[in-house]
Amino acid sequence: MQRIEHIYINGEFVIPQGREWFDLHNPSNEEVIGQVRLGDASDAQRAIAAAKAAFPAWSRSRREDRIAALQRMHRAVAAREDELLEAIVLEYGAPVVRGRWMATYPADVIAQAIEALQAFEFEEHAGMAKVILTPVGVTGLITPWNSNAGFICNKLATALAAGCTAVIKPSEMSALQTQVVLKALHEAELPPGVFNIVNGRGDVVGEEIARHPDVAKISFTGSSAIGQHLIKAGADTMKRVTLELGGKSPTVVLDDADFPAVIPLVLQAGFLNSGQACIAGTRILVPRSRLAEFETVAKEGVSRFQSGDPRAPDTDIGPMVSQKQWERVQRYIRIGQEEGARLLAGGEGRPEGRHAGWFVKPTIFTDADNRMRIAREEIFGPVLTIIPYEDDAEAISIANDTDYGLSALVLGKSPERCASIARQIDSGRVLINTLAHEPRAPFGGFKHSGLGREMGRWGMSEYLEPKTLITG
Ligand code: NAD
């Protein structure tokens, strides 16, 4: 049983003013494994004041000094990879293979921020003017539970690289991961106040950060509903915002695709991170002329996906993060049946043999219509929906008939045809016959999937304000 009492302000571990203790659970057996003491609005204010005081010196620091600081951060976070893996599996229930990736990603993403900083042009010429990119100020960084450590490191490394200081409000449900990252960041010996971490509720600590006049910018990853709220909350103080939000990503299977060859990609895209991934390919668009054939192959493929103990090496899908999330997924499985979609695999309840833990059966609906709620709303669990289409034009139209636009996958034999379809899909990212990730490219969403971009020079630019100098 871990008790996490401290938050981090001005380079020190301090006890928050907030007195509420929040239970942390092991989603594999539902037991309480720890408690975290939550900060309140006054804790957020202290953290913002520390970040404000640290800003003048940090914003004027030299590129080499920032690179050195980020390198110390990278080394310290990388050294705690195994500890982080243990926290991710215990507190989040990630299967170990996925968990290992999630434990290496935080250090990797710091290395990528270093690379972006090394290559970044802070001054450019535009006609007779010199354009200087200047750090926006104190930033508020708010992260979700489905990749808490990764998002803390990505947002913080980019903000610091740009010359900003930060107050981080991590997910309250991920306090073990936050604690591991925090210990590493402390060891990196950054100047006091350049980063501060306040555990707390979204509607208390998050809200204070979102409304505070001394916070110039919010970078948020989480649900679209909270993202929309943050735009409104920040309007009075004219905050800059970067939002990485939800998705309902299409996987377009073309009529020339080799189904047995592509089905592993279809299912991996859909069940990514136990289905709790913003980029999960949850709408599978299949040519109606080959629907029955696709269903046979998909059913066979999903039967090999194991949902169970995250520590077992052959587990593909771990538990849902919380009881609330488990109930939400169950509700959508009922909704899908009520809407008239046909259950091809899975269904309500826990997988066979499991009596505790927030486990879900990998579930696939077929013969669905894109107007159904299971095709429109983000479920955030291992529930996929097959939607038949007549021709390429209809496939593109269904792919784009969504509020979201974060990621898409196109699968087919002809590279030219796939590329042509990819260009017509309204999405921040379109993958063709691959699930590869390119950290140097911008990441973010169209429409309700977000605002702005992270990663590479695009991510850095989000923390900078262009200033035009014209000399007479
Ligand atoms: P969430 O929106 O419920 O919470 C995210 C964070 O916002 C948490 O730290 C929470 O405490 C905080 N928050 C809640 N209310 C707030 C308020 N009023 N003011 C300020 N902060 C507040 O999301 P979640 O359930 O933690 O994460 C799942 C969601 O995140 C999904 O919708 C998923 O698609 C999305 N997500 C998006 C990406 C991406 O890169 N696009 C990546 C991962 C997750």
Written overview of the protein:
With 472 residues, the protein is an alpha/beta fold. The chain has two domains: 2-245 and 447-470, Aldehyde Dehydrogenase, Chain A, domain 1, CATH 3.40.605; 250-432, Aldehyde Dehydrogenase, Chain A, domain 2 (3-Layer(aba) Sandwich), CATH 3.40.309. It has 15 helices and 21 strands. It has helices spanning 41-59, 63-79, 81-92, 96-119, 148-162, 175-187, 202-211, 224-235, 259-271, 291-302, 323-338, 373-376, 392-400, 415-423, 456-461; strands at residues 2-4, 7-9, 12-14, 21-25, 32-37, 123-126, 129-135, 138-142, 165-169, 195-197, 217-221, 240-244, 250-253, 283-287, 342-345, 363-366, 383-389, 408-411, 430-432, 450-451, 464-470. It is globular, with a radius of gyration of 23 Å. Bound molecules: nicotinamide-adenine-dinucleotide. Nicotinamide-adenine-dinucleotide binds next to helix 7 and helix 8.
Task: Give the full name of the CATH homologous superfamily of the largest domain.
Answer: Aldehyde Dehydrogenase, Chain A, domain 1
Number of strands: 21
Q: In which order are the strands of the major sheet placed?
A: 15-16-17-14-13-18-19
Number of domains: 2
Task: Report the CATH topology name of the largest domain.
Answer: Aldehyde Dehydrogenase, Chain A, domain 1
Low-confidence stretches: none
Query: Major beta sheet, specifics?
Result: 7 strands, mixed
Radius of gyration: 23 Å
CATH architecture of the largest domain: 3-Layer(aba) Sandwich
| Percentage of residues in strands | 15-25%
The CATH C-level class name of the largest domain = Alpha Beta
